[in-house]
What does this fold into?
Amino acid sequence: MNDKTHFGFETVDEKDKARRVAGVFSSVATKYDIMNDLMSGGMHRLWKAFTIQIANVKRGEKVLDVAGGTADLSLAFAKRVGDTGQVWLTDINHAMLSVGRDRVVDKGHLLPVAQCDAEKLPFPDDYFDLVTVAFGLRNMTHKDAALAEMRRVLRPGGRLLVLEFSRIWKPLASAYDLYSFKVLPWLGQKVANDSASYQYLAESIRMHPDQETLRQMMDTVGFERTEYFNLAAGAVALHRGYKL
Ligand code: SAM
It folds into this structure.
């Protein structure tokens, strides 16, 4: 029997999940940035600004942006590492990566770009000072394998930052559900001509491990000093862990 996983609320064969996720991001790539601003009322910029602040990237550091998509984080890091550092923009999806690469070039940066699966990163052991994954882990089939790969490519002392949707403060849950399951698909239909992808977004958020479960997953693959910061009443959380 094939191993099963979830794609939103659907149960699917593990071998089919990546293809289904690819369908979502290939469909929304050109409208991805505008949809982010509309859906979050611009708040995703604040969540990313907080991530950039906590990342505290220094000149000369080597940074890997996993599932980097349209390159918001890569661009911010590129400004900080200077000529002696490196920022790799990576993603499994060609359409998302193309939008990201074009944005990077339009802003006057030249970054290495690689299309790759977070579960099999094409980088040597102990290489990066910082690995980030923003709103990407939720979509991965084997999150533990992806986290282990991120740890493998970090140098000892390096840090991982995971920015992801998480479990909202309970009193806000029913209003958030209404927004997620009614407004998001409607907005997706109007702006990106695709309600299904935004229905998947709402469902995949509900299926993603909560703050404490993700922190424990990071512990299990060997990260140390793991902790998280809740943002927007826990709708989003930033997790941090070190490879020591
Ligand atoms: N990091 C960007 C941001 O914060 O705006 C993009 C996030 S977007 C919601 C999720 C990204 O995860 C998509 O670009 C998708 O292609 C990528 N992704 C999904 N599964 C992946 C995997 N197994 N390996 C690498 N990237 C993956």
User: Anything to note?
Assistant: The chain is about 45% helix and 25% strand.
